[in-house]
Amino acid sequence: MGMLKRMKDMRDMVEVAPGMVAQAQQLSAQAQQMAAAQQAAYQAQAAGAQPGAAEGADFDPIAGVSIEQFVAVSKGVAAFGYDPAKLPDIAASRGIAAAEWQAAHQGWNDRIKRNRAVI
Fold it and tell me: Which of 45, 53, 103, 109 would staple 63 via disulfide (CB 3.0–4.6 Å)?
């Protein structure tokens, strides 16, 4: 009797196999689409981070301070234990006056919060 049950189970499996194969193919196609979408998003993000790729009003200098200068000053604070009080000194060492730095610092932070593409 065990043999008959196994044959019935095998028949049942053969009957559902085409549906399972179709479902697996569908899942594979969806996975490939997702992978392609993720790769495209990654490439777009990487292209946005390249020098010269920044365009539009959100990338215009603020108080004469470009995004590149803002980043350089912001990175420079690492040497001082991330003490924000050192930012004006770092900016001054790069030729940026205190009033310009203050306006640029606030402006660039606002733009970054508003438009994540600015990062």
Answer: 103
Mind listing the pLDDT tens digit for each residue in 13-63?
Answer: 888 788 878 888 888 878 777 777 777 777 766 665 544 455 678 889 999
69 within 8 A of 94, measured Cβ to Cβ: yes
Single-letter amino acid, residue 18: P
Contacts of 92 (CB under 8 A, 6+ apart): 98, 101
Distances (CA, A) of 36 to 11, 26, 31, 73, 111: 38, 15, 9, 37, 30
d(CA 117, CA 5): 62
Token output for 20: 């399972």
CA distance 52 to 50: 6
Kindly give, in sequence order, each residue whose CB lies less than 8 Å from that of residue 117, ignoring residues fewer than 6 positions away. 48, 58
Residue pair 75/89 in contact by the 8 Å Cβ criterion: no
Q: How far apart are the first and last CA of the chain?
A: 70
